[in-house]
Amino acid sequence: MNKAFNRRGFLQGSLAGAAVATVSLAKPTEASTFEGYPDSIGVLVDLSRCIGCRSCEAACNKEQNLPAPALPFNDFSVFDELLHGQKRRPDETRYTVVNRYEIPGREHPLFRKIQCNHCLEPACLTSCFVNAYTKTPEGAVIYNADVCVGCRTCMVACPFYIPAFRYSSAFHPRIMKCIFCYDTRLTKGKPPACVESCPQEAMTFGRRTDLLEIGRQRIRENAGTYVDHIYGEHEAGGTAWMYISPAPFEQAGFDTTVPKEPILNYVKDFLSIVPMVLTIWPALFAGFHLLATRKEKLEQQKKNEGEV
Amino acid sequence: MRNFINNTPEIPIASHHKPDGTAWSLKEKLWLGLSRQDYKDQFLRNPVNWVLIAIFAIGVPLILQRYFAGLGSITHASDDYPWGLFLGFGLFGMVPLSASGFLLGTTVEIFGRKDFIPIERLALLNGLLGYFFAVVYLEVDLGMPWRLYYPMVVSLGPAAVLFLVAWHVATYLSVQIAEVSSAYFEWIGWLKGKRFIKSIAVGLTISGIILSTLHQGALGALFTYAPGKVHPLWFSANFQWVHFFCSAIFAGLSMVIVASTLCKNHLTWRCDERFLKNVDTLTLGLAKGCALAMITYLVIKLVGVAHDNDWAYLLTGWGQYFLLELGVAVVLPMFMFAYGVKNHKVSLVRWAALISVLGIVWNRLNTSMICFNWRIYQEIPHWKEVWVTITVFALYFIVYRFILYRLPILYQWQDNK
Amino acid sequence: MHTNPKAVIAAAVLMLTGMLYPSQPCHASDEYDAIEIVTIDVLADLYKPVVFNHQWHTKLAPCKDCHHHTTGRQDMDPNCIRCHANSKEATSVACSSCHSSKQFYPEQLNETRNPTLYHIDKPGLKGAYHLSCVPCHVKKNAPSHCEGCHALTDAGKQYFHLNKQAAPGKTKGSHAQ
């Protein structure tokens, strides 16, 4: 019996050992920082190619079953629309918009398509307290309306002003945001509807790492055509959707002040003090309490002794 | 109310028994010992109530509109300004003003300053109601208010700052309910409950300090998610939480001064001798705390500017606005507090407290709305949004007053030894 | 948008038969050999087919303005010559023989992965057409807005939500190059 027990113990021990070995083998391969999923997909937008036909807006509207637009998609007066001095932005009726920018010194204007840039470390995701956002290995940042509380912190956090809120609904409000056609197309190996609809191939769809190569090649081989920068390579810690432009990016409405690191980095300072407060405060203030009330206690004791 | 008290010796109720020895029923306690008619008369005679009625007459339909036609029906539904007045004022403004609970709790329970006891309960109640109504404002603002508990049980995102705020505010709210409940237990005459709360008071207070430090700071840290959106002078990745925490200290203390002043002047019948005799001295004591917290705040505010090298912004229009805010909302009341404490000028201190309370609300509105999106444009809230904000505040005022009228906050319960 | 592979193949075959003489690969092609009419109906669900008068276009511009190369002729583009100086004669000049109508699908994505591949940035057929046609149309004041070449079908009108406002053929201000 003793022997049997030993054998079983040995087996258990070796199993446990194997488990430990697996874990300890697995550990070193985990990077301490996350650089994004290696094979994730992205899109490279070339502003020099976009002609502002708004086909992508129409394609998105159809693919995502969004509400009918106020004006037809081939009405180009929308490029003159301004709200609070701002050009159009994605809102609860549209996941993507194309805006026109007159560039000083250029004969023709530039057009910029705006949609979720699908950050590698999305600010919306890291700020969400119910985990409504997911960065999929394919590269899309998707949203789960079933757990969303509607606090709209993601909208505050997004450096690109992308998530919009369905304010018009009392009972079914939700965040409205480009999801890279994740469920209907991306997971089936298809490019998103906007990319497929583009006549000019202003959008190149591919693995993010390949897109960076393509972008650099395009900048290099068309010397003088492009600004030597891929917007989104580092902005906000890197985005899946990236842009190359023949004019300085700020002239085409890009926010070039967006940090070149994940938004989360700005929050880490605070997050790091949390464990400190949680562990040190109780001891510290209990200590204060004991010190502050020591005299009182001594007096109490004295009194008690006197009574005795 | 004053007239009734002069005419009826047994009110205000301050013990379980009428002078003739019979016990007050709970119903009588609720009606303040008045008949329905008398209660109605005193209610209608008070001009404040007419103002409240006017606010509610318009505000309640607006709140219903919000719940049945969506947030967009009473706000500008801005995607650029996801947080409007409900959070800018209601959450970011109310929470620092409610720091009073943990501050006075710490002073009395931890540092053993028993001399602050006469004002401790007012501070605790002020804290509890402030937090509670911050949650009410949140419920007005949340897209799906019926999912308020989701971050607690349904879907957890523990790495988010707001998760911390949610949990800490929820826990702290229960801590504060426990702290204030001893007044309630006295009022209903359940001494066992009171004794139990007293036995865990130190534990409650310490957990209150932890939770307050973290969520006051976390409210500031929420804005560190928007480094490009909040103006650099109001933004500091490293110090934002310290700024919010430190300013909450003088905000909470000032709020107690303001509340105690209102009670002293307009609720005199409900205050007992102990409160009225001590309130001036205690006000000066609180003012001292305010002045110290303010100088600390001022220093770390400047450290924040220096750390991010934001000096150049001080020369811009935004910089002047920043200096105006610091000057009017911090430096001015700070000197008033200091001068008032030194020369025993209680009324000066009280004005300083009012300035500092309004100043802290101004600061939170600056951070969350006015200096938010400083690169693009400034959002002016819809009048309905302003009205609903005022309506909820009026509700806060009514509940606050309702409790002060009844529970032993400003007076000591007579027979519960 | 949905591409109809059959239509693409049809267009390609049409171009191929018009342009190529597979039996005589050494014979250099020139504008006189060119096909006359190409009907492009890849997106025939949203747009009516485009009838492209190729022969007419050959009189307006030399082949090289649109084609990288013709059959049997040495490539002249300095960038291409870097590798193709000694390449064999091309056997095809049809756009569709290099530019795929099925762009950005997994097969193509995997192709881009090849580390030795230079042509990682090859537009699809639709992109190649538009990138080639539009700048010239803009330069020569030829129709350059969408409906100048592509008449919308009923499905297309619905797609662009034209039902509300009868404003077809609104011209775009201008084009990027």
Compute the number of helices of chain B: 17
Fourth-tier CATH superfamily name of chain B = Formate dehydrogenase/DMSO reductase domain
Please write the string of helix (H) and strand (E) elements of chain B. Answer: HHHHHHHHHHHHHHHHH
Uncertain regions of chain C: pLDDT < 50 for 5+ in a row? 1-28, 166-177
Largest sheet entry of chain B: none
What is the oligomeric state here? heterotrimer
The description of the largest β-sheet of chain C is: 2 strands, antiparallel
> In CATH's first tier, which class of chain C applies?
Alpha Beta
Shape designation of chain C = globular
Helix content of chain B: 55-70%
Total number of strands of chain C: 2
Topology overview:
The complex is a heterotrimer of chains A (308), B (417) and C (177).
Chain A: H1 2-29, E1 41-46, H2 55-63, E2 97-101, E3 110-114, H3 123-127, E4 133-135, E5 141-143, H4 153-157, E6 164-165, E7 175-176, H5 193-197, E8 203-207, H6 208-221, E9 241-244, H7 264-292, H8 294-307
Parallel strand pairs in A: 1-9
Antiparallel strand pairs in A: 1-8, 2-3, 4-5, 6-7
Chain B: H1 2-7, H2 26-30, H3 36-45, H4 47-69, H5 85-88, H6 94-97, H7 100-110, H8 117-141, H9 150-153, H10 161-188, H11 191-199, H12 201-221, H13 240-266, H14 273-307, H15 317-343, H16 346-370, H17 383-406
Chain C: H1 5-19, E1 37-40, E2 50-53, H2 54-60, H3 78-84, H4 106-112, H5 125-139, H6 146-149, H7 154-159
Antiparallel strand pairs in C: 1-2
Could you explain how this protein is built, in words?
The complex is a heterotrimer of chains A (308), B (417) and C (177). Chain A is an alpha+beta fold and 308 residues long. Chain A has eight helices and nine strands. Chain A folds into two domains: 41-262, Alpha-Beta Plaits; 268-293, no CATH class. A three-stranded mixed β-sheet of chain A has the order 8-1-9, covered by helices on one side. Chain A has a two-stranded antiparallel sheet with strand order 2-3. In chain A, strands 4-5 form a two-stranded antiparallel ribbon. Residues 1-31 of chain A have low confidence and may be disordered. Chain B has 417 residues and is an all-alpha fold. Chain B has one domain: Up-down Bundle (Formate dehydrogenase/DMSO reductase fold), CATH 1.20.1630. In chain B, 69% of the residues lie in helices and 0% in strands. Chain C is mainly α. Chain C has one domain (5-159): Cytochrome C3, CATH 3.90.10. Chain C has seven helices and two strands, in the order H-E-E-H-H-H-H-H-H. A two-stranded antiparallel ribbon of chain C has the order 1-2. Chains A and B meet through helix 3, helix 4, strand 6 and helix 7 of A and helix 4, helix 7, helix 10 and helix 12 of B.
